[in-house]
Specification:
The chain is mostly beta strands. The chain has helices spanning about 1-25, 75-80, 220-225, 280-290, and strands at about 30-45, 60-70, 85-95, 100-115, 120-135, 150-165, 170-180, 195-210, 230-240, 250-260, 265-280, 300-310, 315-325, 335-345, 350-360, 360-370. Strand 13 and strand 14 form a beta hairpin.
Length: about 375
């Protein structure tokens, strides 16, 4: 009886130690949700000589953010040292109410920590969403606006911020940023609007969200999600325009194949090839006699491309550059580029959103789906 009692006591003690150890490993710090208000002041950067007459005054702006401080619940959060993520609303008076109006943005973002676990945190923000310009080009009512031709635009927000927490429930920040709005040639004109600002903001903690168990995947599952080598094939479509004020829009079709090599949990590189079929090239050639449009193959363009993806869990941010190997039109130059967002839904399916450009001149959006082999 006494031996049995001692064995039971030892078993209970070991079980308690194991339970406490497991609980400590599975318990994560709470995720903190902040409501943040920021004021901005800056100017529109005149990146083209033909737009300087539109810039009348400095640009005041305001921003509302819902910011979630991650806690390492997912593997990618640990890879990036628990960044902040959230959604925001942006409003700016463009300093020229008659010809430019106001800019409004609805976007999501990630604040990447550049010096984690410090009292003063330095963050780099990458934000993307939908933007609205209230006074776009109109051939009848606003013909002097030569920078933007549509109400709806792509919205990009980049920022370098210093953040200080004077207490647990208060968040103070200041920073410098660049906000870009354009429509990727969906509707001309499309020089785009770039707003450079400084900002100051204050945030209040709204709540804490506790996680009971870590969702960190083991090494094998990570290798399956991001294999060292893989091949992708993506088909995409887009639309562009040839002249401002025109109702006519032209479809663009793209197929791109890529061989990828994963070099870290954050990065992978590729070499690939692209096929393009731009209906706008046919229309331009009929107008300017660039090539024989009776042979549809003359409109085919082919290129070779090098690329990089910044990997954030299942999301990847591509940055790619290519050169045409075959093209009958060289009006946009020899080189082309691509930026965007790709979502790797599972082991095979890819959802693609991109913008094809020639240096800083956008040609069209690319919406598509792909397959990973």
């Amino acid at each position: 009886m006494r031996v049995s009692h001692h064995i039971s006591s030892i078993f209970y003690l070991l079980s308690s130690i194991f339970y406490l150890t497991a609980s400590a490993q599975d318990t994560l710090p709470p995720k903190k949700l902040f409501i943040n208000f920021s004021g901005h002041y800056g100017f529109i950067a005149a990146h083209h000589k033909n737009m300087s007459y539109l810039i009348k005054r400095h640009v005041p702006a305001g921003e509302l953010n819902f910011i979630l401080q991650t806690n390492g619940e997912k593997h990618w959060e640990q890879v990036y040292k628990n960044p902040e993520k959230g959604v925001g609303i942006y409003f700016a008076d463009l300093g020229n109410p008659q010809q430019l109006g106001q800019a409004i943005g609805f976007f999501s973002f990630i604040n990447f920590s550049l010096n984690p676990d410090r009292k003063f945190n330095l963050y780099f923000r990458s934000g993307n969403g939908i933007g609205i310009i209230t006074k776009p080009y109109s051939r009848i009512n606003n013909h002097k606006n030569n920078v933007n031709g549509s109400f709806i635009n792509a919205f990009v927000n980049l920022r370098l911020s210093s953040v200080f927490f004077p207490c647990r429930n208060l968040r103070l920040e200041t920073g410098i940023g660049l906000t870009h709005l354009s429509n990727a040639n969906w509707s001309l004109p499309n020089l785009g609007i770039n707003i450079a600002t400084i900002n100051i903001g204050i945030g209040f903690k709204k709540s804490e969200i506790r996680s009971q168990k870590s969702e960190i995947r083991n090494q094998k599952s990570e290798e399956k999600q991001n294999p060292t080598y893989f091949f992708t094939l993506i088909a995409a479509v887009g639309v562009n325009q040839l002249s401002p004020g025109s109702e006519k829009k032209y479809a663009s079709y793209t197929i791109y194949a890529s061989e990828w090599k994963t070099v870290s949990e954050k990065s992978r590189f590729c070499i690939g090839g692209d096929l393009f079929y731009e209906m706008a090239n046919i229309a331009a050639s009929k107008r300017d006699t660039i090539f024989d449009t009776s042979n549809k193959l003359n409109n085919l363009q082919a290129g070779v491309r090098f690329g990089y993806e910044l990997v954030i869990g299942k999301i990847a941010l591509p940055l790619e550059m290519g050169a045409y190997l075959f093209t009958k039109t060289t009006s946009n130059g020899l080189f082309y580029h691509r930026i965007g967002v790709r979502y790797y839904v599972n082991k095979h399916l890819i959802i693609n959103y991109g913008i094809k450009t020639h240096w800083v001149v956008a040609e069209n959006f690319e919406f598509g789906i792909g397959y990973r082999f």
